[in-house]
Amino acid sequence: MGRVQLFEVRLRHGRVVYSPGEPLAGAVRVRLGAALPFRAIRVTCTGSCRVSTKANDASWVVEEGYSNSALSLADKGSLPAGEHNFPFQFLLPAAAPTSFEGPFGKIVYQVRATIDTPRFSKDHQCSRVFYILSPLNLNSIPDIEQPNVASTTKKFSYKLVKTGTVVLTASTDLRGYVVGQVLRLQADIENQSGKDTSPVVASLLQKVSYKAKRWIYDVRTIAEVEGAGVKAWRRAQWQEQILVPALPQSALPGCSLIHVDYFLQVSLKVPEATVTLPVFIGNIPVNHAPLSPQPGPSPPPGALSRVVPSAPPQEEDEAMASGPHLEDPISLFTKSHSQQQPPQAAFGSVPGAPELRPQDGSPAAHPLPPPLCISTGATIPYFAEGSGGPVPTTSTLILPPEYSSWGYPCGEWGSGAWGAGSAAGPMQTSLSPRRGPAVL
Predict the structure, then answer these.
(1) Backbone torsions φ then ψ of 437, nearest 5 degrees
(2) How many other C-beta atoms are found inside a 10 Å radius of the C-beta of residue 213?
(3) Is a pLDDT exceeding 50 seen at residue 228?
(4) Does the pLDDT at position 377 exceed 70?
(5) 3 state SS of 183
(6) Which domains does the chain have, with CATH numbers?
(7) Share of the chain above pLDDT 70, in %
(8) Distances in Å between the alpha carbon of 112 and those of 2, 101, 109, 351?
(9) Cα torsion for 432, 434, 437, 440, to the nearest 10°?
(10) In this structure, which of 35, 147, 210, 304 has its CB flanked by the most CB atoms within 10 Å?
(11) CA torsion sign, 416 to 421 to 424 to 426?
(12) Helix and strand element counts for the chain (H, E)
């Protein structure tokens, strides 16, 4: 065995999750088989954000520091054989952002100990990673209790000369959610045409933006639900639920290099119609009851109001007469529901982290400290500039659309970019974007 038999950093009580502004205490433990001369024994506490232009690259092009404190545990001397403990304590910065890890960047905190040996001797180093959780209180977000509603109207032609209109409206019961809470979605589709629509698809999307030499957007689908299409001259209502999995919180206050955003997108492929609702993921739930809407269990068909299309164009009389004109409103059924399960390597329990507990949809108080999730899991990169398009990958996640200069996903995304498609297993889809990378 070597002279240094054990050299490690231990945190008090085995904790690894801390809050900003909290003291971090521990000890450096050394076990020697023989006396060891040294020039100094030091311990440092560092925290920084590092961003790279290549996925899973150990090197980085941009760095932002949050903490860099050092202590001298022992001056020049010699450690006799045996076991030695050197206690230390640091005060964590009050504005330190929450830990995060993604393929293009990470926010990492660690304690590193060093035994500085005399000249020509090998220095000894060890480190211990810890995590900071700065809880995002959803109630601090302006208008978080307001209804989350978006609507769009699309005109489209069929049978060469026929013209129809479809109105797509989507809403959620809240604007913000915590891990384990149920997101309640409601979509209203009014098909004022003689052609059936395609199935309706709702997707919970995550967009992570990395600021390197250029902005890099990393997009993935967290969950996807597909409902049936709407028959000609019918109005339908679709109600579904999505369980919010373990996800990093929206935004990372204190960090200017990484931004995390979530969106709920509801779309039709035919006609091409999309509405996007921004959604916040936090750690402390909304404590106000939602004002409206309040989607609940799907009512029976007879409970919906009777809808008759208003003054269809005269040239559509032939289409109306060619088949039965169904006037009774309906409730759409769900065809498929795929929700990505967080990989163990990405969302596995962090030692010492609070245990995840399911949250129901009520605004009840949070019974435990908020859970910590530091990783986004597997994602597909998307660059804001450059001549090359997205590279195909074996991942089952769908490729992202063009963002152009939008602040969040919205507008015309290309036919089929996030359209309908049955998912066979978690996040499997046959869809792909039509357009290449956007240049900002």
Answers:
(1) -65, 150
(2) 10
(3) yes
(4) no
(5) strand
(6) 4-132 (2.60.40.640), 138-383 (2.60.40.640)
(7) 68
(8) 21, 19, 10, 19
(9) -130
(10) 210
(11) positive
(12) 2, 23
